[in-house]
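All the exercises in this workshop are built on plain-text protein records. The record below serves as our worked example for the rest of this section.
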Amino acid sequence: MLSFFPTLYPDELLYSTLARYHIRSGNRSFKQTDLELFGYSSQQVCKITLTNHLNYLVKNLPLRSHQTVGNLLQNHTLYPFYATFLIPQEAWLLKDSMSKKLSDSILELAKVANGSSGESKKFLKFCPECLEKDTQQYGELYWHRTHQLPGILVCPTHGVILCDSSVALESKGIHYYAASLDNCLVVTDIKSLANQTLKTLFTLTNDINLLIYSNFAFKGLAWLRAQYQCYLVSKGLLQIFPAGKFKFDEYGFSKLVFDFYGQESLEALNPKLTQHQGKYFSHCLLGCDLNPAIDRITHILMIKSLANSIEAFFQ
């Protein structure tokens, strides 16, 4: 049992708390910290965002700790984001796997789309204004969970562009790097974005948070495709004929998405979205129930473009 454990800050990523524990423990190696926290050492690349073996960690906390696995999952990992496009049974399986010692691939269970829109951030991100505020209020920095959510490029509190730290999300070997002034260097030559683009990205941030905290029951990828077809037909972008044949206005649909978000916003999220005249959107739209991986951000973009409301689409 641990003799101490740092108090989690509001919206703190669990990995951030583990990294602060590593510093306070005085351990010379990350492996030793891993052994103390989880009873075994794992080099899984998604440990930063989808930490597993939480049952052991919680039972290993000091006696006076009131921490629960449920709270860690819901408020300090990216589980709620990845659960949004999983049916209840799949979400339960992901939650159960994160609670236990790693046996299956967490990324496969979460249906993470490698290299997709916003879902392959290379570095932990931070907000320059949060950095200053946290230092004044808590005397130290920490990694915010919200800043690491795929698709979020703007701080939901301050509305400023998030910066890349020097801490890689995917790297070989075990590491626990707490947020610091050394790895959170504020770069002054960040590419500026138009005010409308910032507003669009800020709205997307709110849409992602709405989806996470509203607990909409996802009904499956076949249902998702059927929903898309209904909206496309109503907008005159899809004609369905007998024998399973259909005529899809790919150009019209791509233009709808581009007009709704603007090219600069889409390029900021991922240049892949604007390549080949938006064919990637059509690929996700028509094959959404065939691909085992889910590009959640692209689906959120398409849903908002078609329905103008996340709530209306899911309800």
